[in-house]
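My current task is to audit a protein record that another person submitted. I need someone to confirm that the token line plausibly describes how this chain folds. Take the sequence as given and treat only the tokens as open to question. This is what I was given:
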Amino acid sequence: MAAGKHRFLVLDALRGVAASMVLATHIGDVSHRGTVFAHGYLAVDLFFVLSGFVIANAYEQRLNASRQPVRDMIRVRLTRLYPMMALGAVVGLVAMGVGAEREPLPVWTTLASQLTFVPILQPHTDLFVLDAVAWSLMLELGVNLLHAAVLRRLSTQAIAVVAGLSLVPLVWAAWRFQGLDVGWYYESWLGGLARVAFSYLTGLVLYRLYAGGRGPRIALPAALLLAAAPAALVLQYLPVRHAAVLCDLASVILLYPVLVWCAAGVRLCGRSAWLATLAGTLSYPLYALQLPLAHIFQSDVAPMIVPQIGEPLAWAAFAVAMVALSALVGRYYDRPVRDWIAAGRRRRIAPAPARRPDMGAIATPQPANPARR
């Protein structure tokens, strides 16, 4: 299966914004100082909506034409997701080794969990210890396979009904945990299922409506759409009861679907298109590596530089360094490894070349038969 030809560039830029929101939240968590983006974990829900939309655009028609759609989806998504998550596991091991992360679980247990996308179901423990963001990638991979096996056969109306039904556990999780920062640790793993179910299915419905020419096209500036995702997080500070819960639910149920719908209709060109493509390219390496590297920075680097430049500037420097590192990793590791995997697959499925005759069996040319002159 090959990716779809059309590229929704503002959606790429939204992925970059979402990865940056998660980075701001993780910096606040690791430094124990908090930020205005304390609810930046909601960017994961934005990732899920984007994934439903983009996967439907890129692969749904090909899945319908495939004789083995589940196998094809596994191949495509693991090729995309696995190289960076394997690198994240290695960085997580380094973090554990230098003392940034001390866990009671055996090293090989945590490594096997990370490399197989099998969560650790142990009370008071992250589902994935070495690189905790793998919980969302595990759920995304699972819903991708469900898409290939079942969802592609369902009508848009049926999927919309299922998405609506998933609101019940989503609202329950938000109320139960006083927000939607759920899914990444044992006690809240069911909340993660509700998050991916609603947002991914919503993205799938949005794409089908968009591709079918249904619904209004809302023309808004790309800059406004990109600024809306992080700016909406200030709703948590409104002086109303349960503002944090309401902020989370409003963002996931209303804001992010509207942003994706509007962004899909925006066309970019020139430098804007290049920047949007760059943001999309950086987003996955930035997301996959930020948490273990933040732990390493907090335990081994920050103590040396914070006394000289101060903690805010130190973490700002870390954020800039993460963006630069993500660019390098994307160019010199992620893309080459994925290309190598794809090339190996093409070699395996390519037809065998025609067998050349044995040179020793080639007869010496004989003079033409005089009788045929």
